[in-house]
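Today's session is about reading a structure prediction critically. Students often jump straight to the picture, but the first step is always the sequence itself: look for stretches that repeat, for charged clusters, for runs of hydrophobic residues. Only then move on to the predicted structure, which in these notes is written as discrete structure tokens rather than atom positions. Here is the chain we will use throughout the hour.
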Amino acid sequence: MEVLWLDQEEVKSVVDMHSDMVVVESAFRQHGLGKVQMPPKSYLYYTAYNGDLRTMPAYLEEEDITGVKIVNVHPGNPMRGLPTVMALIILISPETGAPVAIMDGTYLTDIRTGAAGGTAAKYLARKDSKVIGLVGAGNQARTQLEALLEVFEPELVRITSRTRESCEKFIEEMKDLSPCEIRYEDSVQKVCDCDILVTTTPTRKPIVKADWIKAGTHINAIGADAVGKEELDPELLIRSKIIVDDMVQALHSGEVNVPLSKHYISENDIHAQLGEVIAGKKPGRTSEDEITIFDSTGLAIQDVATAHMVYERAVKEGLGREVRMF
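Below is the predicted structure for this chain, in token form.
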């Protein structure tokens, strides 16, 4: 038996943000309709190395595609010359359980997370949003902005990060993609003067204060993806409409996990899962003044849907190499 192996460059060559937003939105819709099997991601914690490892299986029943992602998060890796996040995705045959393809999931994780943020903003942000704010200047900031540019026509992008150098690098790399000015700001508060705010940091202490956020803002909270992480002032969650990607995962490791554990909010304060909004089962934004928050933990359905698209395109183009298993 042989399995198709695809490296990162091959994955990159066949995936684009526009196409991925289509498959990710479809995956969320199936999730909202209850047509997926997806246990919450499981974690191993390597406290001595400030890292963790996660396994993420999913089965999209409507499309009959299944697989699992294995992914790490090690914030100290850049000092070793390695990415903070590295991932491997295995596509499986639902019929036989045999592996069909093994591919790099590092870039795929970045683009599918961006696609989820763009899709959330499509349904939750004001249609006339003109200013985007980015807190964080890493890979996730890049794909989040790329996805938002698929949906909106901003006039200004504000960005801040731990260092001005990282922001200037981001601005240089993104100048050909963004049709508008990308401006460095020296504080998170200045970046919060926006219509759509995206936070992509690994912080465990809130960095966005409630009184910095104006009425009508939409927030993509991307950074909190493990127990104890939070980027937003709990007071902000209290006065916002909260939409999570998956209820079970969010309660455990999303932006809401710390405010829930400290009883600032309850599970009843969570309005919906994104898939329920996309499927029309629950409303999204209902006024121009309400603040909406998308709590993104990252779902295995996003990975499997994207990986399946990559696999089909790679086969069509004759990419990859067959590896004998047995």
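Discussion point for the tutorial: The mean pLDDT is 96.
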